[in-house]
């Protein structure tokens, strides 16, 4: 089966995840702090080189996950390639990624913040941290008002700014979102869009993407389209006279 082309639409956030071919640590082992510090530095450098506005990120020994708005169709792939080159030449030789990274377009106004909370909660889901903001190798601490210097290179999405008028109020509101967590239905929608490489949003968002996206943004309806029976002619009705 042919693999899907990359899904891109101008000025639209993307959720992306790459799985490493060789995890930096096994699930029960301690996180390799020095290696993850290096990967954080290379991620920052790769984003700046390619002009990608990163809104959120999470590095685990197994995966790199981003929420970002690239300036063009090739910018995010170039970021991943640049990060992979640094990884392969300076840390681990050989293949970096276990296949292509997966990505989903994310609708602003309804799904950007849930997608951000989902990715920043990955260390908790993996059993690596009790709270998202405690994990040093993600953007969660910066979004709740901790470790702002480490995350100074991020470009906060407009949806994050709209949470409240002041930095402290935004951080408090986002902290509540992280602590409250997502519902099961939200998590499933995010994961289905990401792993299926489709768009994450409502009907109006999908309709707009039909004319702006690089390819079809949602799965085709199941089953074949209905065909008219051969040789059947629909009669034309004429109005009856009085």
What does this structure look like?
A hairpin with a 3-residue loop joins strand 2 (53-59) and strand 3. The protein has helices at residues 33-49, 75-90, 112-120, 122-125, 140-143, 158-161, 167-180, 184-196, 203-212; strands at 13-19, 53-59, 63-69, 102-106, 199-200. It has a single domain (13-212), classed as Alpha-Beta Plaits. By secondary structure, the chain is an alpha+beta fold. It contains nine helices and five strands. The mean pLDDT is 90. A five-stranded mixed β-sheet has the order 2-3-1-4-5, with helices on both faces.
**Number of domain units:** 1
DSSP, total strands: 5
Measured on Cα atoms, how large is the radius of gyration? 22 Å
Count of individual helical segments: 9
Mean pLDDT: 90
Secondary structure: helix percent: 25-40%
- The portion of residues forming beta strands comes to 5-15%
Give the CATH topology: Alpha-Beta Plaits
CATH architecture: 2-Layer Sandwich
- For this structure, what is the CATH homologous superfamily? Transposase IS200-like
Q: Give the termini distance in whole angstroms.
A: 62 Å
The helix/strand class is alpha+beta
Secondary-structure element pattern, one letter each: EHEEHEHHHHHHEH
Please list the strands of the largest sheet in the order they lie side by side: 2-3-1-4-5
Main sheet: strands, sense, barrel: 5 strands, mixed
Q: What are the segments in which pLDDT stays under 50 over at least 5 consecutive residues?
A: none
Shape: globular
Question: In CATH, what is the class?
Answer: Alpha Beta
